[in-house]
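R.M. (postdoc): so does anyone remember the format we settled on? I'll just put the structure tokens first.
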């Protein structure tokens, strides 16, 4: 079998997605997600101008060799653009291999380790009362794990808080919008939020929270300690992870489980965090961490230290990535949880898929491959629209802040 053609498909059915389609001389094709939120065209160009010419004529079954060819061979390693492009190729090749075998992808990885994949949804509200209502709504839909985010009194905009819909998309403007931030207000408000939520749902629902990198290590430690009575499943992205030793300070002061890694691109980004047991969940994704081939290596390293997976799954990952992630989740021995933000009806129509949600769990289905396709004719009706993620500034003096 040989690769005869590959092309990039950029579309915007409610938000921008970048999809790579690889075709072979035996009539089999596979697709991979290459979406990098707010920088989509950079990955599209990387694939079209630099990667695709190197794929034509290669054997698509040689996944491992092609992965290293694209990673080592470029000399300039790592980074979100490079690794998202490699991930798209890798995912498409696994899709082809599984289709050639006539098996769902998880069977090629080693078979199912569980009957379903525990997922969590996003309950967002402008205030505590609305957030509690949303948490209860998600519980009524069958979710067993729910992320709770609330607006903060005195802050006009807070990233991560939706607008009362299930399809919240943060990349919402043709130029970056600006949000405001005040750490003291947030630290006072968040324990009150979880006191109200836990009282409303009781002890049988897993609760999660995303800090989104906005705290210093000692502030994160204080928040984790304040949230201990509410038994969170995890506290996510509590502080920027470039300085990985910062997590040691958090670990010393709280038993609230720590999750991080949705912006990580390789095993090197999380090596120290895992080996020093400074985190409980690693949130690397199929699309941003080099595909299934590389994500397996990260998971294997994490398993040595009882760190479990908890992959990012917001709407900036297309259904292609979600399908591949669910196959990975069903197989990986040290699975923890999978984020699941539902896509819009328009997105689901462009990307028909085999995965299903039931009673708080998802299953990737039994379709050969990863079970997701792309309707190219429909995709063409949704052309690319430039969209940026917001930026965050401190409320009192306008200093650009983490988010």
């Amino acid at each position: 079998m040989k690769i005869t053609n590959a092309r990039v498909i950029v579309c915007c059915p409610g938000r921008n997605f970048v999809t790579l389609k690889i075709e072979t001389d035996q009539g089999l094709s596979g697709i991979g997600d290459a979406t990098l939120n707010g920088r989509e065209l950079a990955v599209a160009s990387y694939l079209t101008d630099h990667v695709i010419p190197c794929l034509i004529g290669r054997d698509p079954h040689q996944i491992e060799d092609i992965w290293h060819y694209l990673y080592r061979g470029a000399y300039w390693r790592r980074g979100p653009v490079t690794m998202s492009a490699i991930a798209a190729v890798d995912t498409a090749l696994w899709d082809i291999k599984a289709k050639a075998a006539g098996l769902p992808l998880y069977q090629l990885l080693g078979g199912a380790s569980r009957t379903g994949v525990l997922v969590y949804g996003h309950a967002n509200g402008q205030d505590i009362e609305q957030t509690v209502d949303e948490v209860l709504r998600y519980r009524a839909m069958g979710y067993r794990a729910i992320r709770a985010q609330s607006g903060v009194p005195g802050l006009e905009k807070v990233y991560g808080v939706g607008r009362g819909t299930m399809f919240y998309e943060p990349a919402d403007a043709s130029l970056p919008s600006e949000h405001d931030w005040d750490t003291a207000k947030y630290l006072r408000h968040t324990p009150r939020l979880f006191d109200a939520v836990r009282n409303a749902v009781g002890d049988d629902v897993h609760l999660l929270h995303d800090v989104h990198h906005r705290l210093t290590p000692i502030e994160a430690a204080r928040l984790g300690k304040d949230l201990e009575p509410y038994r969170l499943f995890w506290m996510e992205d509590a502080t920027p992870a470039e300085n990985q030793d910062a997590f040691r300070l958090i670990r010393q002061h709280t038993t609230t489980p720590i999750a991080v890694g949705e912006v990580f691109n390789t095993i090197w980004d999380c090596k120290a965090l895992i080996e020093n047991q400074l985190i409980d969940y690693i949130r690397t994704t199929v699309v941003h961490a080099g595909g299934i081939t590389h994500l397996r290596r990260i998971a294997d390293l994490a398993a040595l230290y009882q760190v479990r997976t908890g992959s990012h799954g917001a709407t900036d990952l297309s259904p292609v990535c979600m399908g591949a992630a669910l196959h990975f989740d069903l197989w990986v021995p040290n699975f923890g949880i999978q984020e699941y933000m539902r896509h819009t009806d328009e997105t689901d129509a462009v990307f028909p898929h085999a995965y299903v949600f039931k009673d708080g769990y998802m299953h990737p289905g039994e379709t050969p491959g990863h079970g997701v396709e792309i309707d190219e004719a429909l995709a063409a009706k949704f052309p690319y629209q430039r969209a940026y993620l917001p930026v965050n500034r401190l409320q009192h003096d306008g200093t650009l802040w983490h988010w």
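R.M.: ...and that's the designed sequence above, right after the tokens. Also worth knowing: Residues 3-104 form a domain with the Enolase-like; domain 1 fold (CATH 3.30.390.10). The chain has a mean pLDDT of 96.
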